[in-house]
Amino acid sequence: MTLLVLNISVPPDLGSAAFHEALRDQLPNLGAYALSFVVIAQFWRDHRYVLDRVDASVDRGGHLTLLGLGLVALLPFPTALLAEYGGSHSVATAAYAGTVAAVNGVHLALLVSCEPRRRPVDAVQRLAVADLALSAAVFAVSVPIAFLSTSAGMLTWLALIPVKALVTVGQRRAAQHEGALPIG
């Protein structure tokens, strides 16, 4: 989370009207920060989940892990673009969506390509794969949509709210069900 640093500031020594205007000018940066905080928090949770569920030593040299971390570290740049130009420049919206899609894609690749620690793969893990695949797909689909309409591209991301809620409920139910089964 410490990587997410945007230029959120108000110049000193402003009069009342200028202060309020400068504060209003920071609202897009604050909104982009909030959005990216939630997105990066989810990436962190996904990454921890993936590494808990798979034998990451199969990721020889940690190439996928490093690629994912590199993309997350890059996220402040497209976030700043989104804050400044997201409503008026399709490239800013597409860059943000492409970066988010890529991180989800890397987490998905780790989850499906590495040897699972638990055999057979359970319902919780199948739902995690579906969640990552849908997240990557929604953000990837929003890239070309952003070139048609930046607003439509960003609104596409809202499709993930009910999807993530359903996946979370499904994972909790599956974990309770599987946890209730006797071992052996």
Automatic annotation (TrEMBL):
Keywords: Ion channel, Ion transport, Membrane, Potassium, Potassium channel, Potassium transport, Transmembrane, Transmembrane helix, Transport. The keyword Ion transport applies. It is found in: Membrane. It catalyses: K(+)(in) = K(+)(out). It is a multi-pass membrane protein. Coiled coil: none annotated. One of its GO terms (molecular function) is potassium channel activity. InterPro entries: TMEM175-like. One of its GO terms (cellular component) is membrane. It holds the Pfam family TMEM175. The chain crosses the membrane at residues 64-83, 95-114, 126-148. Belongs to the TMEM175 family. This is DUF1211 domain-containing protein.
